[in-house]
Specification:
This protein is α/β, with parallel strands linked by helices. The radius of gyration is 31 Å and the shape is globular. The protein has five domains: 103 residues, GIY-YIG endonuclease (3-Layer(aba) Sandwich); 75 residues, no CATH class; 179 residues, P-loop containing nucleotide triphosphate hydrolases (Rossmann fold, 3-Layer(aba) Sandwich); 181 residues, 3-Layer(aba) Sandwich (Rossmann fold), CATH 3.40.50.300; 90 residues, 2-Layer Sandwich (Alpha-Beta Plaits), CATH 3.30.70.600. Helix 1 crosses helix 2, helix 3 packs antiparallel against helix 4 and helix 18 packs antiparallel against helix 19. The protein binds adenosine-5'-diphosphate and zinc ion (ZN) (2 copies).
Length: 739
């Protein structure tokens, strides 16, 4: 029998996860050792026995075989949460292409060296009777400090260390002496830095309507019969999905299990968190990017210790170390933010389903505009589909949607960014003191700067993109941050006829102020929210009625609930449509539907105006009628025809290098390698290689190719082949991206 070796990580809580050690697996343990196992191993010169986790198994010795020690034993009856997460990491490594270390760092909370906030208390270590006798003794000897402390302790039993030092003025030396004489005890209590202050009130659960109850019941019935699968709640905005999650969560908690709720970072507002706190009290915790590393670690520790049962957070909350996880909820499951942009480039939905399978838990996805992939699986029966078709709140009505053809506006002599209909509605809503959101999916002042004489658009010197003009007289690259002054003459031909084209948020702000001087206007985009907390400030100001009109990018289209907003205008709905991405139609539909969902969240009549040059485009038409099924039908048949996901798996192979020729030759060799592998014949379709959509960023060249295949395993195999073959090539990076 071949010898097998295990990679073992020692002291996982402290390790930086950068180093594993190789051990032999002895014959008697051969069947028992697997990835995620907890093992005991001899360690260091003294061969002291330490415990660790197996992170990988191979049949190759990494160094002199004779020097490799053997695993000592295995801790069998312990299903440690770390083991479970390590297994998940191993799966992610294979699925998404990363090293085991990168995968481990993604799933295991690593303790950062942060100062612990610690509170110490002093208590008596002797009976009060004894203390009184001692007090008499100290009085005789005139030990003033000891007298002060002891008499206080006889009254109070427990006094914070700080108070003893600063208010009773007792020196650390005295305290130490008393502790040594076993008169007092110093108790350490670690205070977890709680993420949310607990000044919330509790609210009762709402009475679910028929559709909501039916969804909850389906889930609960399955759950009680130990059927754990994936569910999709397809419910229009405001249909009460969140209330349904809460009912499901309540059921899972009652069985003594824990719950993870994923919400896109952008929708993780105070409002949202408070809804959970009011229902579930301080058994809830949350993480978000605003927490420090220490605060984050603390919240994860609390989950591990069983101090909390619900974790609310963005993508990374998926790895909360709950020991008995019963449910993962993913709200707004279609959101792009659920896909990681760093290696391993995982999708939270897939990983959630995997994690749930590993611990016999369920997954609930929710969205008003499910991703095509998810809906496809729901229709095929892989996920259970539940629909909420009505707004939940008594008396709230769906908005009226107008689609305006901007070509006609132009023909009628209207050159402004506001169509007649939109201008009319803005005036009307302002008169009634109702609020307005204007949405354009491009920041900056104008889209790009170009010359009318020679047609040249001004590009970033480091990237293959045009520069965006900003209000303050400069042009900025939105990819690398390069900035330069707006030129007065064309750098190519010298013509003075140089100007900005297209509109962005800044220009909309200027034009809105000109057109409606009586209105107060605020803007929210990446440029106004780069400072910590500024996004909350803008949103809460708007919610408090401090502005009439909020202008912004897709940031404002999502998740926020403003009851006084009765008009939403999508100024240029075509921007995302023309984005040259195979998912452009899906993104446009989602964006417009979500934006429209912001209008009329209350009993007042809401209006939505969609301005476009493509009024007949199906994603715009179906968004206007809020007809998801129709949109899905058209989009799905189009994808089927072209064999795009979900009808195939699509893998992008991206090669980047500062050396253009190197990138070019490597991508060609990759292409040849894949095409010549007999194993894949007839199974795959290769598109490319070619320049990536943006062929250069920050002076690094980018080349890619696409592979379409029916089987997931083929993607993984191809990835492994390429990785193995090119792993020693210097000066290039090869990235894989699935679907
Ligand atoms: P979604 O998550 O689908 O957008 P929410 O759960 O946020 O919807 O519900 C929208 C609004 O309707 C919220 O203010 C919520 O409190 C209210 N709501 C939801 N369900 C009910 C119900 N059964 N009865 C009364 N109000 C409800
Ligand atoms: Zn020119
Ligand atoms: Zn650039």
């Amino acid at each position: 029998m071949a010898i097998l070796y295990a990679d073992v990580i020692i002291d996982i809580a402290l390790a930086t996860l950068d180093k594993t050690f190789q051990y032999k697996i002895p014959d008697e343990l051969m069947d028992k050792v697997s990835v995620g196992c907890r093992v005991r191993v001899p360690f260091g010169n003294g061969n002291s026995i330490r415990s660790g986790y197996v992170t990988g198994i191979s049949n190759k010795a990494e160094y002199d075989e004779g020097l490799i020690k053997s695993i000592f034993g295995i801790q069998e009856n312990e299903e440690a949460i770390e083991g479970q997460l390590i297994k998940l990491a191993a799966w992610m490594k294979d699925r998404y292409g990363s090293t085991m270390i990168q995968a481990l760092k993604t799933v295991i909370p690593v303790k950062k060296k942060v100062k612990q906030v610690e509170k110490k208390y002093i208590t008596l270590n002797i009976s009060p009777e004894e203390a009184k006798k001692l007090l008499a003794l100290y009085t005789k000897k005139n030990h003033k400090a000891k007298i002060r402390l002891l008499s206080q302790l006889i009254d109070d039993k427990e006094i914070p260390y700080d108070i003893v030092v600063h208010k009773l003025n007792i020196s650390a030396a005295t305290i130490k002496a008393l502790e040594k004489d076993t008169v007092i005890c110093i108790n350490h209590e670690r205070i977890y830095r709680t993420a949310v202050k607990s000044d919330y009130g509790r609210t009762e659960a709402v009475l679910l309507n028929e559709q909501q109850q039916a969804s909850a019941d389906t889930f609960i019935r399955d759950y009680d019969e130990d059927r754990h699968g994936t569910y999709l709640i397809h419910g229009i905005t405001g249909s009460g999905k969140t209330e349904v999650y809460m009912e499901m969560i309540r059921h899972v908690l009652n069985q003594g299990r824990q719950v993870i709720v994923l919400i896109p970072e952008i929708a993780l507002t105070y409002q949202t968190i408070m809804r959970f706190y009011r229902q579930f009290g301080d058994r809830v915790s949350m993480i978000n990017s605003r927490l420090s590393a220490g605060e984050r670690y603390d919240q994860l520790e609390r989950a591990k210790n069983g101090d909390i049962d619900i974790m609310v957070g963005p993508r990374s909350a998926l790895f909360t170390p709950f020991k008995n996880l019963g449910l993962i909820v993913i709200d707004e499951e279609h959101e792009g933010a659920y896909k990681s942009e760093t290696t391993p480039r995982y999708h939270a939905r897939e990983v959630a389903i995997k994690r749930a399978q590993m611990c016999n838990a369920s997954v609930v996805l929710g969205s008003a505009t499910p991703s095509v992939d998810t809906y496809y699986r729901a229709l095929s029966g892989e996920y259970k589909l539940m629909s909420l078709t009505k707004r939940a709140k008594e008396g709230s009505i769906l908005p009226i949607v107008d689609v305006v053809d901007m070509r006609k506006e132009l023909l009628n002599g209207n050159r402004s960014i506001f169509s007649d209909r939109l201008r009319e509605l803005i005036t009307e809503k302002l008169e009634r003191h109702e609020q307005i959101m204007l949405f354009i999916n491009r920041r900056g002042y104008s889209g790009f700067v170009s010359c009318r004489a020679c047609g040249q658009a001004i590009k970033c010197p480091h990237c293959d993109v045009t520069l965006t003009a900003h209000n303050y007289g400069r042009m900025v690259c939105h990819y690398c941050g390069f900035e330069q002054k707006l030129p007065k003459i064309c750098p190519a031909c010298g013509s003075k006829n140089i100007a900005g084209f297209g509109i962005g948020t800044e220009k909309v702000e200027t034009l809105t102020k000109q057109e409606f001087p009586e209105a107060s206007v605020i803007r929210m985009d990446l440029d106004t929210t780069s400072k910590k907390g500024s996004q909350e400030k803008i949103l809460s100001d708007f919610a408090d009625g401090k502005a009439d009109i909020l202008i912004g990018t897709q940031m404002i289209a999502k998740g926020h609930d403003f009851p006084n907003v009765t008009l939403v205008g999508a100024l240029a709905a075509d921007i995302s449509l023309n984005s040259n991405d195979i998912f452009a139609a899906e993104k446009t539909f989602q964006l417009l539907t979500q934006a429209a969902g912001r209008a009329g969240r209350s009993s007042k009549q809401g209006n939505v105006v969609i301005q476009t040059y493509n009024p007949d485009n199906f994603s715009i038409r179906t968004a206007a009628t809020q007809n998801y099924e129709k949109f899905y039908e058209e989009e799905a048949s189009f994808r089927k025809l072209l064999r795009y996901p979900p009808y195939s798996h699509l893998m992008t192979v991206l090669v980047t290098s500062p050396d253009y020729n190197l990138a070019d030759s490597i991508i060609s060799r990759i292409s040849t390698t894949i095409k010549s592998e007999a194993d894949y014949a007839g199974e795959i379709e290769v598109i490319g290689p070619s320049d990536a959509l943006i062929s250069r960023i920050n002076d690094v060249f980018r080349k890619n190719l696409f592979i379409k295949t029916k089987r997931v395993q083929t993607m993984t195999d191809i990835k492994n082949t390429i990785e193995e073959k090119f792993k020693d090539t210097k000066n290039i990076i090869i990235l894989f991206d699935m679907n």
